[in-house]
Fold this protein.
Amino acid sequence: MIGIFDSGLGGLTALREAVRLLPGRDIVYFGDTGRIPYGTRSPETIVRYARQDMRFLCGEGVDVVLAACGTVSSTALDTLRQEFDLPIIGVVEGAAQTAVQRTKNRKIGLLATGATVSSGAFAREIGALDPQVELVSVACPLLVSLVENGHIADDDPMVELALADYLAPVREARVDTIILGCTHFPILAGAIARVMPGVTLINSGAEAAKLLAAQVPPIGEGETGRVRYFVSDSAPGFARLASIFLGAEIEAEVNRIEIERF
Ligand code: DGL
């Protein structure tokens, strides 16, 4: 059974790809909607939250975890890997690799949370793959709130306003590739593409799901492809937005848990 977690809806970008690539696998999704955002918090708090998220998923019986959160992947992954005895895949590695493969002018933009940008995780990963690449990183915290509040249409005026500001440095640097390093941002890919036509957008959640699919067998023993959803706050809002994003009604019920207990 696969565990996927994020601070909220963003990890669904990884879930969607995981379901497509691994249709027979059972998946448990946890969105920490009661404590979002993670990206504005200290590394200590992010590690504490991520540890609790992992404990919950382990209690559900998962045997592999996709940390579908750029913030957790760039800040807490090493600690989680030391503390938990199961494979944990983050979203930095796959996105960095694909971006380096796809860029032609070696100018890559990174849109992510403040914590992810400050961690330097993408810069390190990309620098190790190709030291000649210029990385222009922009922290875009407002985009997380916009997505969580349902501003996900390609022509949403509030998203357009935020993007005009956030995308200015990557436009100026003439990047040809942008890593959507926060898993919430691929939900806004249409809006971003309108401002940056012709630029390659890398979906960090989907890239991580590809790494996951390369590592686990497509069908688990006794698994039937069931997806279960858990959140730490108001479940109906999550189900409605998740259904819009996944392009299909969520069939399973969304359960609310007390994450601080873990
Ligand atoms: N989806 C998240 C990320 O990738 C979380 C954003 C947040 O909670 O601030 O960073």
Summary: The chain has 13 helices and ten strands.
